[in-house]
Amino acid sequence: MSRTFSNLHKRTLVLFLLAGCALAHAQKTPILMELFTSEGCSSCPPADNWVERLDAAQPLAGAELIVLSEHVDYWDHDGWKDPYSSPQWSARQKGYVTMLGLSDAYTPQIIVNGDVEVRPANAQQTKQSLEKAAGAQMMTVRIDGAALASGELTGRVEADGSAQKHSGEVYVAVALDKTLTDVLAGENDGKKLTNVAVVKDLVKIGKLEKGKNFEQTFRVKLWPGADAGNMRVVAFVQEPGQGKILGAGMTKEIGRGNQSASTR
After folding, report:
1. Distance between start and end Cα atoms, the chain
2. Backbone φ/ψ region at 242: left (φ over 0), alpha (ψ -120 to 50), beta
3. Which residues on neighbouring strands pair with residue 2, listed in sequence order?
């Protein structure tokens, strides 16, 4: 279930090409990039690092790359149990394989905006796919008042669906901003692995009707020891049946206690 990701030269080439893009928009276009990965897969660290660099550099002018790292669980029997793995992410990956007519699920696998698989080893295809995503019409999604108190994350999601011709399902993902793991067994034995935007929770908070706006508060019970200082929240609207992403928004500004923050 793994494939060789890419060599350093091709990954660097993709970054170089993306850095040269000059797509100007009055408002940044969100691009939701879902990375299916595992700490038990030796092919995954280069992909994890590539996505981490994209997340930090934001190389597409006029666009915002919103990253989600979803750790699958089917590598957990090969010597190392990924502490962030979940059958939920494996099922989500398989859902994309079915919806997009892909040959199989593997790691690392990257899905952009729910409707295209990108392979960074193919620099030209990756560049074209991300440029196309940066030029797409996406609805505005806003997260307001995100706050962590008593083990729960609360906030409000607003989405401008007035121009939308499709209905959608609205999700909130809660992710660790960055993780560091000393792997002690398996294919990555002895390595220190870093990841960004590691998804811990994904909940559906409502439905958006075509041509209408959406506004809904949310409440997510978090894991013990959840830290607002190492967390990001992503909201996105997706066509029913795990279809195309219609819009997305992200914030790292999370209030503590009675404090709150908002972002576009």
Report:
1. 37
2. left
3. 107
Residue at 129 is within a domain = yes
Q: What pLDDT digit, counting tens, does each position of 61-89 carry? A: 999 999 999 999 999 999 999 999 999 99
> Tokens 């979940």 — which residue?
86
Could you tell me the pTM of the whole model?
A: 0.90
77: its two tokens: 């029997």
Beta carbons of 74 and 29 less than 8 angstroms apart: no
Residue 1 domain flag: no
Domain of residue 62 covers 8-263
CB within 8 A of 201, min separation 6: which ones?
Answer: 172, 173, 174, 220, 222, 223
| Residues β-bridged to residue 234 | 173, 250
Cross-strand pairs, 146 = 261
In a domain, 3, yes or no: no
Phi, psi of 126 (to 5 degrees): -65, -45
Tokens of 37: 């990965």
Q: What is the 3-state secondary structure (H, E, C) of 181-193?
A: EECCCHHHCCCEE
> Domain count of the chain?
1
CATH number of the domain at 183, please.
Answer: 2.60.40.10
Q: Residue 162 has what pLDDT?
A: 86
Does 53 map to a domain? yes
* Structure tokens given for 39: 């700490």
